[in-house]
Amino acid sequence: MVDVLLGLQWGDEGKGKIVDYFAPRYDLIARFQGGPNAGHTLYVQQKKIVLHQIPSGIFHEKTINLIGNGVVLDPVVLKKECETVASFGIDYRKNLFISERTNLILPTHRALDKASEVLKGNEKIGSTLKGIGPAYMDKTGRNALRVGDILDKNFTTQYIRLRLKHQKLLDSMNFHEDISGWEEEFFEAVDFMRGFNIVNGEYFINEKITSGKTVLAEGAQGSMLDVDFGTFPYVTSSNTISAGVCTGLGIAPQKIKEVIGVTKAYCTRVGSGPFPTELHDETGELLRKLGHEFGATTGRPRRCGWIDLVALKFAGMINGVTQLVMTKADVLDSFSDLKICESYKIDGEEKAEVPYQMAKLEIEPVYRSFAGWNADITGLSSFKDLPEAMKIYVNHINQYLGIKVKYISNGPGREQIILAP
Ligand code: GDP
Ligand code: IMO
Ligand code: MG
After folding, report:
1. Among 328, 335, 376, 405, which is best to mutate for testing ligand 1, by the most ligand atoms less than 8 A from CB?
2. What does the pLDDT look like over 234-289, one tens digit per residue?
């Protein structure tokens, strides 16, 4: 049995915290897509830690963690992350497995990402510059090197062949930075990775499922950044939605049971691209300040706005979400008025659907107003104690989406989560 947990907005919904909270219920946590563009924040022993590639179950001794074939993996980032995890006394070699089909991010992928963004000028995606797009292009272009290849004695030759190909592209893009330092780090990190549990991920995970183990597939990014269904071209390069779990881990669709969708009580986006409910005023500033909305991977300020039910309903549909987790509800504690977007006005016409080419349209959000609760909820642990105004806000979301908020997160701490009836 496999449950899926993924983000329903533009990323940073708080997936890391929630996976860490759920981890004791699962035998295996698996990442199925994305790479070091992700930044999943958890608090362990009151200390903040940001995971980029390692699944968020790593701090639970009994939980196995798998980096699946759908991920693009940067050995340099992995090595650094392993060192951080080890500083918490965790023996990552015991509980971390990597699929041999996982594609590698090379130093030249990072260079190509940078060169491509420079060439796009004002139309840049706002990529995290971790090499994600170029690495996935080499996967679908059938050039990539994969984790299993590092065990091949011809790995360096294969690397040089691909590197030369990349060099031609970089030359044509006028990219002339010296990346020899990156390459040195890369080969050191590849050596480090050779000592890992490198497995055939699809047999590994299916054997676990057959023997009755429970699996949680941990999404990265968010549904609105999905390469097919997101706000293209301002998206990431993988399928972030639940369908990506099957191709990203090698499991059949009927093995998937719950699809747990995570949404903030409001909305944020980092990088360029459409964001209908974005607030450019002091309310947006206040959300950023109270929510500490700065990117976990790049430190960039996140764009902030009201919750968008049109986009959430769309995400619920394409993912088959069965239950919702609402995070950062406490960030709204001091707002006296709240707004919820229920439809989009485009060319004078009101519609509650996500259009095909959001990036080219002028979208005006249509809001319904709600009273704020003006109370500190961070110390509460029971749904019945939540302020009435908050119950009304949550109930409205449940009804609009036809999916229930089952958990409300009221602070970044592991224990700050409330089960809704
Ligand atoms: P992810 O990428 O989806 O894992 O999310 P990030 O870690 O990038 O961003 C979420 C941020 O919100 C992190 O700084 C978390 O510590 C924090 N966070 C998560 N849940 C809550 C919550 O309920 N309340 C508050 N105030 N912060 C939260
Ligand atoms: P987590 O898992 C928020 C955004 C980037 C950029 C676009 C493409 O922490 O939620 P990429 O580097 O993938 O080519 O960038 O996607 N982006 C994210 N935004 N959270 C993330 O991950 C993101 N990963 C990528 O800002 O707009
Ligand atoms: Mg994040």
Report:
1. 328
2. 999 999 999 999 999 999 999 999 999 999 999 999 999 999 999 999 999 999 99
Count Cα atoms within 13 angstroms, Cβ side, for 85: 26
Please say whether the beta carbons of 201 and 102 come within 8 A: yes
Domain hosting 353: range is 262-419
Nearest alpha-carbon partner for 57 in 87, 99, 15: 15
Mean of pLDDT values over 68-83: 98
Which one of the listed residues 3, 20, 40, 109 is annotated catalytic?
40
Instruction: Give yes or no for residue 219 CB within 6 A of ligand 2.
Output: no
Paired tokens of 278: 């974005």
Q: What's the pTM value of the predicted model, to 2 decimals?
A: 0.97
Residue whose Cα lies nearest atom 18 of ligand 1: it is 412
In a shared domain, residues 27 and 152: no
Question: Which domain CATH number covers 135?
Answer: 1.10.300.10
* Structural domain count of the chain: 3
Q: Which of 12, 20, 138, 308 is catalytic?
A: 12
* DSSP-derived secondary structure letter, 303: E
State the pLDDT at residue 168: 97
